[in-house]
Structures are given as structure tokens and as C-alpha cells.
Amino acid sequence: MSDVILYSRPDCHLCEEAEELLTRVAPERAVRVVDIEDHITLIDRYGLRVPVLRLEATGQELGWPFDAEGLAAFLGSA
User: Fold this and answer.
1) Which residues pair with residue 34 across a beta bridge?
2) Rounded Cα distance, 48 and 76, in Å
3) 15-60 pLDDT per residue, tens
4) How far apart are the first and last CA of the chain?
5) Are 25 and 72 in contact (CB under 8 A)?
6) How far is it, in rounded angstroms, from Cα 12 to Cα 74?
7) 29 to each of 13, 34, 36, 46, how far by Cα in Å?
8) pLDDT category of residue 78 using cuts at 50, 70 and 90
């Protein structure tokens, strides 16, 4: 099981930036990338808000935009 979910869309440059930032800030984290376009409920929930990170343990979410400092704080809150 991953401990972080990255909700994403195909061809989303912001999603790619978020994934690269996550890899750089927390390389030890298990990340599962979920394409919201595969799930109508996720499209309804996130729509154009992607990228969104979700902590599996707590359900907390962090929406874009975020920087390295904000991401580290969010991940440290788990």
C-alpha cells in the first residue's frame, strides 16, 4: 500500500511537476499515481483541481500549488 496518492490527469504538466517535487522532497515515500479520468467519481471530486496529494493514513489532502517547503510541512503532519 502506498502512503501518498497523487491524483493526476494525462498530459498534465502541473501533475508532472508535483510528482517530481514529491520525489525530490520525500524519495522514501511510497507514491501511487491515480489517473482521475479512469473514475467518474474522482472526476467529479477533483475535476480541474489536480494535482492533489492525499495521505492514505489520515485522508488529508494538499492541492496545487505547493512548493518544497509546503510539501515537506504537509508530509510531516502525518
Assistant:
1) 7
2) 26
3) 999 999 999 999 999 999 999 998 999 999 999 899 999 999 999 9
4) 16
5) yes
6) 22
7) 21, 16, 21, 23
8) low
Cell numbers for 58, please give them. 489520515
User: Does a cis peptide bond (omega within 30 degrees of 0) precede residue 65?
Assistant: yes
Dist. CA 44–CA 70, nearest whole Å: 26
- Rounded Cα gap, residues 60 and 49, in angstroms: 15
Task: State the Rg of the chain over Cα.
Answer: 12
Cα–Cα dist 42/20, whole Å: 22
Beta strand pairing status for 52-55 and 61-63? antiparallel
| Residue 28 grid coordinates | 522514501
Residue 58 · residue 15 · CB < 8 Å: no
